[in-house]
Amino acid sequence: MRKLIYILSFFSFLAYHVGSTVAQTAEPLFDTSFTIFGDPEHDYRVHLLVLDRDGDYGMRNNALLTLTQDGCFGKKSIIYDSLSISDPFEDYYIIWENFTPDNVKDMKIYSSSSARSDLHYYLYIVDTAMHTLHRVKGFEDIPNAEYDSVNNIIKSYAMSGRDYWKFYKINAKYKAVDLGYTLYEDHDEKGHKRFEKQWQALKRKNHWK
To answer: DSSP letters of 177-203?
Structure first.
């Protein structure tokens, strides 16, 4: 009996280490690296590595994003973030899109898509003055986020059991703050009229254009 336990333990140990080796040597699903900030004297470089397809919708981190700088004293690590990426779309890992009034395009990293194609992304604000990226906390929880540059807010349209709009702002600590408004959109004549009335009232209340 003791000999059987020893044999089983040995094979469990062997299987674990062989599996770990395969995972480490397997070709990653996506691997890209590029310079940022346009500073020729200091090589700022972003590197995104996605190991496989299954981030389990936020439950498992399977990707790594880093920002490093090569200077006269060697390489300096500025950002080292582990991310969760599930069911990625081909060529849609990184999207450049402005989310602040500075008109500098920020970096969205694909996270996941829901059953009804609600897209979720991580957002990194590009800070050209400080030569860094600021990850916006909670942005990855916002479905189909789009930036309203006129009112400096983020709009979110979610296709769930009942489609709705929500609104957010990015605060000074780079956190996506829910403004507390939910407008449901029912796809019939009465629903459209009710939505338009609520939307106009919300714009007047917040002095949005």
So the answer is: EEEEEEEE--SSHHHHHHHHHHHHHHH
- Please give the pLDDT value at position 115: 73
Q: Which amino acid is at 106?
A: D
| Residue ranges in the chain modelled with pLDDT below 50 | 1-23
Residue pair 113/120 in contact (Cβ under 8 Å)? The answer is yes
* β 30-35/43-50 pair status: antiparallel
- How far apart, in whole angstroms, are the C-alpha atoms of residue 55 and residue 76? 28
The confidence score (pLDDT) of residue 72 equals 63
Q: What is the pLDDT of residue 73?
A: 67
Give the whole-angstrom CA distance, residue 149 versus residue 152: 5
- b/e string for 142-170 if b means 16 or more Cβ within 10 A? bbbbebeeeeebbebebeeeebbbbbbeb
Q: How far is CA 56 from CA 30, 105, 117, in A?
A: 17, 29, 16
Per-residue pLDDT of 87-106, as tens digits, reads: 876 668 999 999 999 999 99
φ/ψ bin of 207: left (φ > 0), alpha (ψ from -120 to 50), beta (otherwise): left
In whole angstroms, how large is the CA radius of gyration of the chain? 22
**For the chain, how long is the longest CA-to-CA vector?**
79
CB within 8 Å of 28: residues ≥ 6 apart:
49, 50, 51, 52
* Residue in the block written with tokens 């899109």: 97
